[in-house]
Specification:
Bound molecules: adenosine-5'-triphosphate
Strand content: 15-25%
Shape: globular
Distance between the termini: 26 Å
Radius of gyration: 21 Å
CATH class of the largest domain: Alpha Beta
Number of domains: 2
Largest sheet: 6 strands, mixed
Structural class: alpha/beta
Strand order of the largest sheet: 6-7-8-3-9-10
Order of helices and strands: HEEEHEEHEHHHHHEHEHEEHHH
Number of strands: 10
Number of helices: 13
CATH superfamily of the largest domain: P-loop containing nucleotide triphosphate hydrolases
Length: 297
């Protein structure tokens, strides 16, 4: 059974000011005969950066979708700030203070950066805004939204790109825009889907700084990531999934040294990613060691 947050707090490995921001139990999601998510229990520490890692197909994205109301589970329950989110649709989850980032889709890529930002606010005010009977009220809300968008663009150094099409941004700038757009609703918990994917090394440090600053201003961050350097660098807590289940959790140092984690990765992720050359070299190394494939060196 994985270590839990309480044990880490008692051991002095994790400092948390209050109880977990998310608590979930018995969450399952099946696609036909495949159980994509089968999580007995999950807790996300408040005010910390938590990484959700695991090999391809482990169920990370499916769990993300379930928690944020973009998918329905076959069973299970979870609460955000003590409030059950069973059956709560995505837009309402966002209004409660829990948002996830989205990749720039084709449609969003054809909008400008500022238009993208303004769309981010609709989760907060959406239909009410358009139905507002008083023009003055409507326009003051509009101005407020634009002012917030401009502040965030300045913070993420995207102000010079304000009128550019989002599709013209680099991979790293897109990630910054995704983060900035999610902040339009001033979330308490922000969930980032692979924030480092497609980001060049020069922008990585800046992105890491932005993620840390989210925590430093009191938000909780939960992110899915394959980039282990990022996980090691910025996470306070790491949850490892394999085949739909949580197989380990703990501080980054603990988790990276856990044989279950190494197994999960070696079993399903790294092998699949090895190039032909790497496979030949690996076979030679194993031969050198007098072992056959499948045995642990
Ligand atoms: N809509 C769907 N219909 C059928 N199967 C699905 C669907 N979504 C996910 N799956 C399957 O569920 C399993 C978990 O997928 P998921 O995308 O959650 O994994 P992941 O850990 O996010 O993987 P990756 O790191 O590759 O993004 C996989 O076997 C996947 O093929």
């Amino acid at each position: 059974m994985p270590a839990d947050i309480n044990a880490a707090v008692e051991a002095g490995d994790l400092e948390v000011a209050a109880g977990p921001i998310i608590v979930g139990n018995n969450i399952t999601r099946r696609f036909g005969g495949l159980t994509a998510v089968d999580v007995e229990s999950i807790e996300i520490p408040r005010g910390k950066i938590t990484a959700l890692i695991g090999p391809n197909g482990a169920g990370k994205t499916t769990l993300f979708n379930l928690l944020t109301g973009f998918d329905r589970p076959d069973s299970g329950e979870w609460a955000f700030n003590g409030r059950s989110l069973a059956g709560v649709p995505a837009f309402r989850v966002a209004r409660l203070g829990m948002v996830r980032t989205f990749q720039l889709t084709k449609v969003l890529a054809k909008l400008t950066v500022i238009e993208n930002m303004r769309l981010g606010a609709t989760a907060q005010r959406g239909e009410r805004l358009w139905a507002a009977p008083f023009r003055a009220l409507w326009s003051s809300q509009e101005q407020e939204i634009t002012a917030r968008a401009d502040d965030l663009l300045a913070r993420f150094k995207l102000d010079a790109k304000r009128e550019d099409f989002a599709g013209s941004l680099s991979g790293g700038q897109r990630k910054l825009l995704e983060m900035a757009r999610a902040l339009m609703v001033d979330p308490e918990l922000i969930m980032l889907d692979e924030p480092m994917a497609g980001v060049n090394p020069a922008l990585k440090q800046s992105l890491l700084g932005h993620v840390k600053s989210l925590r430093d201003e009191g938000r909780t961050v939960l992110f899915v990531e394959h980039d282990m350097d990022m996980v090691r660098d910025i996470s306070d807590w790491v949850i490892v999934m394999a085949q739909g289940q949580i197989v380990a959790q703990g501080t980054p140092t603990e988790v990276m040294a856990d044989p279950k984690v190494i197994d999960a990765y070696l079993g399903a992720h790294h092998d699949a990613d090895l190039s032909e050359v790497e496979q030949i070299v690996e076979a030679e190394v194993l031969e050198e060691l007098g072992q056959t494939e499948g045995e642990q060196p």
